[in-house]
Amino acid sequence: MPAPHFPLPPTDRVRSPLTGWTRAHWEALADRQLSALLPYATPGLAQYRLPGRASWSGVVSDGLEGFARTFLLASFRIAGAGGSDGTDSAAVSHLIERYTQGLTTGTDRDSTEAWPELTDCSQQMVEAASIALGLHETRPWIWDRLDTRVQERVVDWFSGFVGATTWDNNWRLFQVVSEQFLASVGAPYNQGDIDAGLDRIEDWYVGDGWYTDGDGRNFDYYIGWAMHLYPLLWARMAGPDGDGGRGAVYRERLARFLTTYPQFFGADGAPVHQGRSLTYRIAATAPVWLGALADCTPLAPGLTRRLASGAARHFAERGVPDERGLLPLGWYDTFLPATQPYSGPASPYWASKGFLGLLLPADHPVWTDRELPLPVEQSTQYTALPAPGWLLHGTPHDGVVRLVNHGSDHNPPDGPASDDPHYAKFAYSTATAPESAPHAWARAVDNHIALLTADGTPSRRRRIHPLICQGRRASSRHDVQLPGMEDAFPIESTSVLHGPWELRVHRVRAPEGVTVREGGYAVADVVRPHLKQGPGWALTRTESGLTSAVAALYGWDEAGVAREVEANAYGPHSATPYLRAVRHPGGESVHVTLVVLTRDVVHPWALRESITCTREDDGRVTVTFPDSEAVTV
User: Fold this and answer.
1) Using CA atoms, how far apart are residues 449 and 491, in angstroms rounded to an integer?
2) pLDDT at position 209, please?
3) pTM of the prediction?
4) What is the pLDDT of residue 86?
């Protein structure tokens, strides 16, 4: 694996036998990112106008975003070092001066660098929350030393939140923490806004530590880096005498969430590539650090650090931050299809949330205990998460974690629905990304079952209706609408896990003449993946040995592989194996597929010969695997 683009301290293989990383590595990573920003600062340091595609909010808002999100990182670095009186005093003193100057300039309405005022549902609300948290954590070194006139200007800017309207999702929490900051400094605020925001998230709590981010089935990393993070940081700001008992509830929920959260990370440190705003990258580690900070984690300290350091090292070794020290819009390199229209050049700096562990003292067990292995490094893992409708399965021989999706679609409960490739797929993993560029998504091959019209247009998987999720099995239904037809055609799908394999059984209702197609995982690399196919099977394999394969067990006619270019966050060349059943007779049909993603060698023709599949008269399908285990769907 290539070395990071910046110098790091020596590894410590005694304390950190799995990653080699220590607190000093995290501090070095933070310092590199913060120092790299200076060439892009406005003269008064109120904005950081970074290179890259602008967001839909405009250059001034993007510049504020650059200040706010990096101030959050700076605040963890400052507070973690004990301010200018602690270790690294010169570097930390410089950060205090930089961001103090930025606050002074940005809140001066007569300045050419003035921050946009807070208005209903404005992007500034997101950034204000980061500034509020940063000011709270650095209060002895920044807020308490600000000139009174500057404090008044800061309060005046934050006051735009009081009585304002936000989007009805995790944005409610930006208002909560910002107005709690006003309360903490004795400024006017509206307790009703705080209570209403915290009451609202109760409507979205679905159990087992899981929230949906707003109405609908919106499950992704926002649950950890927003729905858990802000309520507990609010409780930290309010204090035990001011949280009304809510803090204890939030700690219990986070503890439940964290019991299965390590199963989302591969042995190489990669998080499962699913959901929006993936360009925030190591922000996915925020809830793990938060559990230790709030003293509610069920995870051993050595596991907490191994998970977080593994994720940070994963990206550092793959060029993040880049040679300029910046975080590009994408996953590894710049890849805009993995972003959203609201993503600007400073958006990736929500990665700052992943540095929350710096608030823990250097002698805390998460920094001093010996690293412990991740679940996927110890044994084959099967984890059912009924709340989001997900199955996780990880295999220690290749360190890959796969997420099978029968529940998250990121759509409102009613009305028009879309099919974002980061939500609509049947499966995601720590080693692959969906084909998400528009030209590839129009074909929608990977991890998708589709009815193809005469011109080859595929149906979409928009609103997902979960049915069951327990043990190693999950089921869901989605309804297909074809052009020119009033009736919807339901597809019911069941996934059953077996080691690195996923068995998919689909009951399809379709009109006569359409083609049914199912794709496996898309694998991507810097060079074209190798392809193989034969009767009832197809596979593609990267130079690094990652293989995606599909094998037809019932109801398929032919196999193939679809190639794409510049469609995948993992590399410019990608490929997906697929199966097809041509000229559907009309009515109901059943299709059974073995889907494989592994770093091992795969022989799908041998699997087809050794796995038996029988469809009973009552509609049930029984599959017997090579180890004689039989499952009935």
Assistant:
1) 9
2) 98
3) 0.96
4) 59
